[in-house]
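Record format v2
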Amino acid sequence: MSWALITGGSKGLGYSIAEALGGRGYDILLLARNKEDLVSAKHRLESNWSIQVETFSIDLSLPGSAEEIGSWCRTQAFEIKILCNVAGLGGAKDFLSLPLSDLIRMVSVNFESPMSLTLSLIPILQKNAPSFILNVGSLAGFAPIPAKNIYSATKSALLFFSYSLRCQLKEKNISVSCLCPGPIFTKPAVEKETRKKLGWLGSQMAVEPARVGEMAVRNTLKRKMLIIPGRLSTLISFVLRVMPARLLARIFSESIRGDEKKRESQRKQTDQT
Ligand SMILES: NC(=O)c1ccc[n+]([C@@H]2O[C@H](COP(=O)([O-])OP(=O)(O)OC[C@H]3O[C@@H](n4cnc5c(N)ncnc54)[C@H](OP(=O)(O)O)[C@@H]3O)[C@@H](O)[C@H]2O)c1
């Protein structure tokens, strides 16, 4: 039996990745905090595919979580062939508007956890080689975005980690991929924020969670390093990669200031009428 471990597999993109792996006959280990969501995801997957699904409730932001997961996998002798680091935190608020504890949690879940879990599971992946690691970054990882300072910084770190790790693990026959999607409407809050910040462009860039999950799994198994769903996001990622970081930060910063001014003047107009 070949197992795939998915952090953040109970909901959103992680669940879509689980569906795509389930359809290919992989047994699945789902990890997240909320036990009811995990059990509901397990039931849905087991009724859709003839596979085995096991769940593990854990907070990935806590120190020692990766070692705990590694020890569970070794004790249960799960033959893991695919590690999917999907869990991640973002949102409308970031540096200068969130308390330090929330920012540290974002760094832990978005970067520290994939890094530690990868280290903890390399021996199992090596034993089951050829094997695969899929890290979920973001299009935001290609640019310094002041309004999403820590989010874009952690996703950028995950992308660079993936590039280097791919070379380091080549000899062990473990392939590393990094998915860098634009908007995916996994929940109403993401859709609202995308439409507010990116307007028409955001809705054109958005790709269905199921399509992203399918594309991520197909390309991970094809050993592709960089996976960017959607033509528009692919084009934007190219532009972001060739532009100087200093200029990008200024452009994002000015566009946000412009949006804030527009909203302020609309608010004043409404107050006057
Ligand atoms: N949605 C987008 O537009 C978008 C775009 C680009 C990149 N991404 C990336 O894609 C990934 C998934 O995003 P999503 O929109 O699918 O997120 P989501 O719907 O909020 O799902 C997040 C998953 O991670 C789990 N999780 C969150 N914090 C956790 C923690 N501390 N410990 C353990 N599990 C935790 C959640 O379960 P519990 O809450 O039960 O723990 C849930 O299963 C993230 O890395 C995100 O940065 C998303």
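Strands lie at 3-7, 27-32, 53-57, 80-85, 131-136, 174-179, 226-227.
The mean pLDDT is 96.
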